[in-house]
Give the backbone structure.
Amino acid sequence: MLTALARIPSIRAGRLGFLALSLSYLMLVVVCLGSLAREDELSLGRNPLTNLIKTASEFARPSFVDVWLGNPRLEYRSDDGTLLRVENRQQVEADYLAGLGRATWTTLRIATLGSLLGALLGLPLAVLTARNLGAPKPLAWLAKGTLDSARAIHTLVFGLVLVGIVGLGPTAGILAIGLHSMGSYGKLFAEAIESLDMAAIDAVRSVGASPMQVFFNAVWPSVLPQFVSSHLYIWEFNIRDSTILGLIGAGGLGLLITEATALFQWGRLATVLLVVIALVVSFDALSRRIREALS
C-alpha cells in the first residue's frame, strides 16, 4: 500500500512530462502551418481537382495493358493530316516491359549488394559502440559519430557525391546504399548487443578469452537471430530506397520513374510503381517467413 502511494508522484510527473511534450509538439505543428500560410506556400495550385481527376484517369490504365489491348497500327499525323509514322503499340509496350524487367533486376542487385556492404561496415562499428562490451572510449565515440553521420546523410546525397567519384551506373548506387545503411545497421546491431545477458559474456571473459573469442562464443550466437531480422528489414527498405537512385543516374527502376515523370507518361509510371509494390510485397512475405523460422 505504502509502495503504491509512493509511486503516485512519479506517475503524475511522468504524465505531466508527456503532456508537456504533446503540447510542445502541437505548438510546433501550429507554428509550421502558420508560417507556411503567411508565406502563401499552402496553395494547391490552379484547378487541383481537374488535374487530380485527369492524372488519376491516366494512372488507372497502366501501360502494360497495351501488350494485349494496344493499337497494332497507331498512326501519328501532323496538324495538316500528313502521316508521320505508324507504331505498333503492342510491340512497343512489350519491348518496354523487357526493359522494365532488366531495370528491376538492376534495382534488386543494387539493394542486395548495398545492404550487404552496409551490414559488413556496420558490424565492427556496432561492436565498438555497444556499451556493455567495454570498448575504449575514444574508439567508441569515433564509431558512434561515424554511425550517426551515416544515418544523418540521405542515400540520395551519398549517391550524388559518389556519381561524381565513380561515375554513372549501379556501383554508385551500391556504395550509396551501403554507406547510409551502415548507420542503421550499426545502431540496430549495437542495441541487440546491449540487450544481452551479461552473465554469459562475463563467464567467457572469466576463463581468459580474448575479445574476439568473447564475441564469437558469447555474443554472436545470441544476437544472430536479431541481426538477421534487422538485415531483412533494412534490405526490404533499401529495395524501396534504391528506386529513387535513378534520379542521379544509378540506373534501375529509378531511371524509368524519372523518364516517365519527365514525359508525363502516367500510364508507364503506374506500371513501374506496380512492379515496385509487387517487389516489396513479395520480399516482405519472404522475410516474414524467414523471421518466423528464426523465432
In short: Strands lie at 74-77, 83-87. Residues 14-40 form one domain. The chain has two domains: 14-40, 90-294.
